[in-house]
Amino acid sequence: MVVISLDTASGDAKMHDQVYDRLAEALIQGQIPPLKSVSLRSLAQGLGVSPMPVREAVRRLIAEKALELQPSNKRLRVPDLTEKRLTQLMTARQWVEPELAFLATARMTRDSIKRLRDDDAKLMTALSKGDVSGYMQANQDFHFSIYARADADLFYDMARTLWLQVGPFMRVVFGRMGTVHLPKDHHQEMIAAFERGDAEAIKASMAADIHEGMNLMLDAIKAQAQAEPTKRRKRG
Amino acid sequence: MVVISLDTASGDAKMHDQVYDRLAEALIQGQIPPLKSVSLRSLAQGLGVSPMPVREAVRRLIAEKALELQPSNKRLRVPDLTEKRLTQLMTARQWVEPELAFLATARMTRDSIKRLRDDDAKLMTALSKGDVSGYMQANQDFHFSIYARADADLFYDMARTLWLQVGPFMRVVFGRMGTVHLPKDHHQEMIAAFERGDAEAIKASMAADIHEGMNLMLDAIKAQAQAEPTKRRKRG
DNA sequence: GTTGCCGGAGTGTGATCACAAAAGCCTTCG
DNA sequence: CGAAGGCTTTTGTGATCACACTCCGGCAAC
Predict the structure, then answer these.
(1) Which positions ≥6 away from B182 have C-beta within 8 Å?
(2) Angle, CA A216 vertex, CA A210 and CA A218 arms, to 5°
């Protein structure tokens, strides 16, 4: 059972938006593993609301391909990642996110860069402690505090959608290999480039960062596909 | 009143999927103009269903930014296009769609190419008759019969989402300037390149095709923004 | 004639009920 | 002991109702 609490303090926001945010966050953080099946009613009960707002939130997530509804049977679950699909996600990420970083460069302030340093510090701390969740959270914060500066809503949402789809699997891969063997990221490079205002360098570093991270997952997918050609479905 | 009929023959598909398809098609074809406000109940009544499936379809369209829910007032409407937003849409289209065309090249069959010729013929016919709707339909068919061959679901859906957002405005711009002054497309170039199997040439032609088409709209937006800085909202 | 107000109509949202279909469990038979 | 079939539970879906809020109409006061 995946427990996801609802922020009871925010009264003006629509319930289905709150539900959506919670679920989206859980997915990006990989708190819901691939092939995990969920149900409207169980989620609703866990959140203390009626199934109605959950339906709308889930409908959005299905539209973003962060969840899927199996065609023949009617179960709702987190999609699995095929190699083909992951390749497309990698290609898309390697285009949008460097673009976002490029656009953000001119708009970075001293405070923004400081925040990046903080996020990276948290990331290193989590790494040294072997804290996968903390690592993923800090990594997400690092990337999206850059993207938020780009002032490009469309690209930002595209990046978010891509992370929604990659999240569950990223958690599995990273959790399996531990934080020790994670590839060196390019965050320090980016921070230095932001201070120089070198947009091209940032674009390149971001592309490299994503390329290496996603390649790791691609290798994991290939290995898994080879090891277990017809994997038995796990209990939901 | 926008009348959108529902296919009553397809019994096995979910109602909200049918509603979604109808609305999406209407939006891509520009049958619903920007800033046009719609309502769940009126749409439901027009489709002969309860508001329920419309809610779910609309929720998807909102997630894809093909519709928006105004924050202060709670009306549902087709979003307007700002210059900033259109620029992002152009950039995104110029990346995804050439990529899709590139991927499709190796998978094109003789029949696929024949279909492209047919679509282009319909397009020319519509152009000569000044039939804006026919033109947009044929243009959509031409592009998406290419994209469908790419076997890249993620990119395909991205392209579809982008068209959903551009559609309403494209119709306005094209309708305003008539079919006579539309820029020469690059369809013949693409067909020839497909026959040669020249993927790079196709990529370039597709990029040029989109670039010129979207530039037209960009000019229209700028002109409109200059002419009417604070346009009065039109009656819905 | 202009301005302010107020009431009805219409909006999206959430909850609840009904229903067909699939899932999962348990019994039962070989 | 293993597998197949039936039955209960659970699932997503659609319809309907209630509610708070917004918009738009006419009426009244100045």
Answers:
(1) B127, B135, B174, B216
(2) 95
Do residue B63 and residue A65 have CB atoms under 8 angstroms apart?
Answer: no
Long-range CB contact pairs, B223-229, < 8 A, 24+: B225/B83
Name the region of B178 (left: φ>0; alpha: ψ -120 to 50; beta: rest).
left
Domain boundaries, chain A: 15-77, 83-227
**What CATH class is the domain B15-77?**
mainly alpha
Give A229 CA → C23 C1' in Å.
25
Q: In chain A, which ranges are continuous DSSP H helix?
A: 15-28, 40-47, 51-63, 83-105, 110-129, 132-147, 153-177, 187-196, 199-227
Topology of domain A83-227, CATH: Four Helix Bundle (Hemerythrin (Met), subunit A) (1.20.120)
A138-184 pLDDT tens trace = 999 999 999 999 999 999 999 999 999 999 999 998 888 776 677 77
**List of chain A residues whose C-beta atoms are within 8 Å of the C-beta of residue B74:** none
Q: How confident is the model at residue A10 (pLDDT cuts 50, 70, 90)?
A: very low
CB contact under 8 A, A59 and B56: yes
> What Å value separates CA A129 and C1' D7?
51
Q: What does the block give as tokens for A197? A: 């205002």
Question: Of residues 108 to 127 in chain A, which lie within 7 A of strand D by their beta carbon?
Answer: none
